[in-house]
Amino acid sequence: MGRMNMAADWILQNGRVITLDARRPAATALAVAAGLIVAVGGRADVRAWRGRRTGVIDLAGATVTPGLVDAHAHLDREGLKLIYPSLERCRSIADVQAVIRRLAAARAKGEWITTMPLGAPPFYLDPSASLAERRWPTRGDVDAAAPDHPAYIRGIWGYWNRPPVHSIANSLALVRAGITRLPLGGND
Fold this sequence. Notes:
Blueprint: E1 10-13, E2 16-18, E3 26-27, E4 29-33, E5 36-41, H1 43-47, E6 55-58, E7 63-64, H2 75-80, H3 93-105, E8 113-115, H4 139-145, E9 151-153, E10 168-169, H5 171-176
Parallel strand pairs: 1-6, 2-7, 8-9
Antiparallel strand pairs: 1-4, 2-3, 4-5, 9-10
Helix pairs in contact: 3-4
């Protein structure tokens, strides 16, 4: 974008500007004109954009990140997809157990295992019907896969979900949560 004798509405300087540009991943200043970033770099890079009415903000070392524009993502769910393993491809309780066993093998005994909900994101519609057994895994199913790890399969959230919301915790997870009076049988 050419300058075309336009002054910036705002200059932000003396900060840490995260650019998401691999060629210049960070800068210390930026200039904004008509709602667009018109210059990024150091103080010298934005100086030419300063006019009489330009607001100048001293960031005092604060960080500026790119704006997130999203029509309707639940950041907890979307962000957690990168942290918690998916069960999306599971077609049976044995598949769920295989994922949990693999996670347990990669962790020290006693370390938590938490997964995303059963089913296919983003809506996780009727996930138990997607399993060969046509039922939710039980505490006993998860105990068998990770007897030495507290394990938790997150429940489905969102307005599209109808109660009851199913989350599955194994026996060790329940004990860690302070739930010690468990029903007989271990398969609840």
